[in-house]
């Protein structure tokens, strides 16, 4: 039996995932939570095989939550589940330690297959994403830049794009301001811009907000 914990702040989403997964005889939902505080409290009490983690779960962002889980609960496998752009975030979350990434736009059938694959220790991305990653490499689409960004750089860019100042970004990611400034300079270089306004426009073009 594959034990699953669902972490998403939308009750209707949790209910929907639960109903789809429970249609499979070899999957059991052992807990569902709506915040990162509840998630870590639950992980102290239960041991799921797979955590389905919403990218934008409240309190700590999904990638930071994922890193913390990898440190404190290294045997728990995580499947990221998000409405955010697959092209941008799938690789970032996998680099940060996720076993898979499932878009909320994907067919419901994918969820059961994804959970089973991740529970076995295998990587899961949709066929559509795999094809885009394979075929977009030679195009001039802006998203190709995200192949060059680390998961931490994506986190910094997302927070800057949401209107956070360097100090707030530093506090949110537990970094110092100087480190955030370094990341910002690196982002500008990688995204081929020379000011914050153009950087944020690039972030918007890349569907970061």
TrEMBL record:
Sequence ranges assigned to domain Response regulatory in this UniProt record: 3-119
Matching SMART domains: HTH_LUXR, REC
InterPro entries: CheY-like_superfamily, NreC/VraR/RcsB-like_REC, Sig_transdc_resp-reg_C-effctor, Sig_transdc_resp-reg_receiver, Tscrpt_reg_LuxR_C, WalR-like
Signal peptide interval: none
An annotated Gene Ontology molecular function: DNA binding
UniProtKB keywords: DNA-binding, Phosphoprotein
Domain of life: Bacteria
Pfam families cross-referenced by the UniProt entry: GerE (PF00196), Response_reg (PF00072)
Domain spans labelled HTH luxR-type: 142-207
Swiss-Prot/TrEMBL GO biological process terms: phosphorelay signal transduction system; regulation of DNA-templated transcription
PANTHER family named among the record's database cross-references: TWO-COMPONENT RESPONSE REGULATOR
Protein name per UniProt: DNA-binding response regulator
Organism for this UniProt entry: Flagellimonas nanhaiensis
Organism placement in taxonomy: Bacteria, Pseudomonadati, Bacteroidota, Flavobacteriia, Flavobacteriales
């Amino acid at each position: 039996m594959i034990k699953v914990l669902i972490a998403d702040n939308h009750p209707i989403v949790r209910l929907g995932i639960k109903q789809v997964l429970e249609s499979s005889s070899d999957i059991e939902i052992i807990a569902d939570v709506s915040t990162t505080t509840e998630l870590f409290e639950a992980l102290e009490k239960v041991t799921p095989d797979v955590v389905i983690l919403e990218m934008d779960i409240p309190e700590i962002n999904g990638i930071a939550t994922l890193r913390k889980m990898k440190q404190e609960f290294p045997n728990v496998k995580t499947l990221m589940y998000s409405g955010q752009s697959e092209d941008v975030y799938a690789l970032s979350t996998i680099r940060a330690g996720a076993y898979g990434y499932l878009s909320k736009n994907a067919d419901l059938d994918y969820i059961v297959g994804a959970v089973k694959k991740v529970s076995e220790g295998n990587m899961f991305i949709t066929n559509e994403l795999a094809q885009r990653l394979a075929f977009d490499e030679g195009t001039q689409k802006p998203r190709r830049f995200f192949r060059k960004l680390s998961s931490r750089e994506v986190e910094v860019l997302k927070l800057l794009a949401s209107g956070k100042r360097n100090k707030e970004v530093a506090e949110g990611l537990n970094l110092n301001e100087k480190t955030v400034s370094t990341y910002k300079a690196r982002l500008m270089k990688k995204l081929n811009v020379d000011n914050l306004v153009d950087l944020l426009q690039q972030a918007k073009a890349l569907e970061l907000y």
